[in-house]
Every structure is written in structure tokens, then in C-alpha cells.
Amino acid sequence: MTGAMGSSDKILLAVIEQRGYPDFTALYEAQGYKVETVKSPRKAISFLKKNSIAMLVAEFNFQTDFRDRTSSLESIMASAQHQRDIKVVIFIDQSNKERFEKVSSRFDIHRTLTFPIDEAQLSQAVS
Q: How does strand 87-92 pair with strand 111-114?
């Protein structure tokens, strides 16, 4: 993180847990975002508590070890929903689409993209 973020900054928070896809920072910056990247749900939640963001890009990774939820994405989304006008883009594996419906029915998701991520679709989703 470099310097203090001004209120005019259009911040995109990229939550990269698995890293099974390219770094899209240049694409996000080309759309006018100041990009902040975190590598854990805990860091994402901490960032969301301290900063207002315009866009959240995260992965849905199904986790069988949770009793009360399907993914750490639900915890991130619970923190993000307190911010107004935030757009959320989720990357998802096709095999987890049905499991993701539980999450997407409870939270406002702007766009869902399946792996492999199509850069043109991603660019359109974050524009």
C-alpha cells in the first residue's frame, strides 16, 4: 500500500486466495481503479472495515470444513454489504455454481465469471 488514499480514489479490492488465474491489476488500473490486493479473507475484512471501496473482486472457493457457511467469501460479503454502491465481481469454478447460489441469493453480486476468466468479460464487468 502506498500513501494515504484520498476520498476521490476509486478503489478496487482484489481478494486473491488460490491464485489460479493471471494478475489482472493492469486491467483494473486501465479502468481507473486504485488496486489493493490482499491474499486472505481476514485481510480483506480488515481492509473493508477501514476503507470505502467501489469494487470488490474475489473468488468463491467451496470449503467443506465450515458448519455455518460454504465459503470464507460469505464473511467478506457480510463486511462489504455495509458499504453503499459497491459492485462485486466473483470468480467461480463451474463445478461450484450450485453451491454458490446459496451465497448469491443472500448478497448483491454485480457479476459472476467462471474460470478460465475471459479478460474482455472482466473488463466489461469492472467498467
A: parallel
pLDDT in tens, 40-78: 999 999 999 999 999 999 998 865 555 555 578 888 999
**Three-state secondary structure call for residue 120:** helix
Phi, psi of 18 (to 5 degrees): -95, -25
Give the integer Cα–Cα distance in Å for 44 and 58: 10
Q: Where are the domains of the chain?
A: 11-126
- Global pTM reads 0.86
CATH of domain 11-126: 3.40.50.2300
CB of 32 closer than 8 Å to CB of 54: no
CB 12 within 8 A of CB 28: yes
Euclidean distance between CA atoms 72 and 51, whole angstroms: 20
Closest CA to 59 of 105, 10, 24, 8: 24
